[in-house]
Amino acid sequence: xxxxxxxxxxxxxxxxxxxxxxxxxxxxxxxxxxxxxxxxxxxxxxxxxxxxxxxxxxxxxxxxxxxxxxxxxxxxxxxxxxxxxxxxxxxxxxxxxxxxxxxxxxxxxxxxxxxxxxxxxxxxxxxxxxxxxxxxxxxxxxxxxxxxxxxxxxxxxxxxxxxxxxxxxxxxxxxxxxxxxxxxxxxxxxxxxxxxxxxxxxxxxxxxxxxxxxxxxxxxxxxxxxxxxxxxxxxxxxxxxxxxxxxxxxxxxxxxxxxxxxxxxxxxxxxxxxxxxxxxxxxxxxxxxxxxxxxxxxxxxxxxxxxxxxxxxxxxxxxxxxxxxxxxxxxxxxxxxxxxxxxxxxxxxxxxxxxxxxxxxxxxxxxxxxxxxxxxxxxxxxxxxxxxxxxxxxxxxxxxxxxxxxxxxxxxxxxxxxxxxxxxxxxxxxx
Length: 431
What we know:
Structural class: alpha+beta
Oligomer: single chain
Shape: globular
Order of helices and strands: HHHHEEHHHHHEHHHHHHEEEEHHHEEEE
Strand content: 5-15%
Number of strands: 11
């Protein structure tokens, strides 16, 4: 009996594979007729479901294949959906800047909470443009200078938190879980500078655990996200929810409470709607870290209207990107291209001095995105990071612990790279 069951299982799996293979081939008919290079999909749904890989894991391979064929872009089916992968920086500039009106929206994540749907990351079209215009004054240099006291207070709390990690009464150093600690610092800055709340995230409370429930994706959430993207009607019928709505409601309550308090007391503060994103950082050293390990490994856009590419070697025939097509720009692959960054896997912060930056195509480095839809909080993040680093370096010498992985241990989540959660560093107080 068990032999029959196993035979039926394998037969079913083979039939499903055969169906999807032919289904994907049919979807590529349009692109093949136009002479688009067709790339072979190298990541499976099983890899994504089990957490062994992400769709962006293949980007470097796609990029190299397009380079070998001397093609500016090509098409690959990812989990049944045709994706246009871009390798040419002139085309990147057209998509993100010159012809931005054709590519204003990001790829949807399915049914999401109002915090994300109504924030800058999730909004589309005119609502996005209106929100961007509304929020932009919040991130000016003058406005950020007024927030400086919040950065300093958060950095001071960070220093105290590190010093509280005594291994013993006579300890001369502190072994600190890096990711856990910096999440606390980030949430301290966001809640104070953005929300105007007096929440000490370094003390025991629900802020950091709730944030982790939103931004850390277990396998079941990845599966629901993929179903929502690939089969939106089925997702709607099944009422799949991508994010942890209990955690999202917790932060919605924080926002509502802050707005209510300010309104009742006549307090004028920062425009906070759409702020709920923890931004990463850029200094000359941090810039090199983000080149090697971008927080978002792939940038995507949706083609709003049929878009004709410039004539190529394809017999002078213009290729058309159809409305609704997903465009993938592999930031990770550009960051590791030798023509822009010689010896790309070497850590070399001098790549970002003024002389070397002037020699390089400015669009080859994209840790915060490019164009009108780039990260609005970049300047905020840089100042936040400068303050944190200044306080840490002034108070401590940083060393690896006995268990710190060398070389560094990096992981890749659904968006991009991240430091492994179990990495510790040793902080030795300066005398």
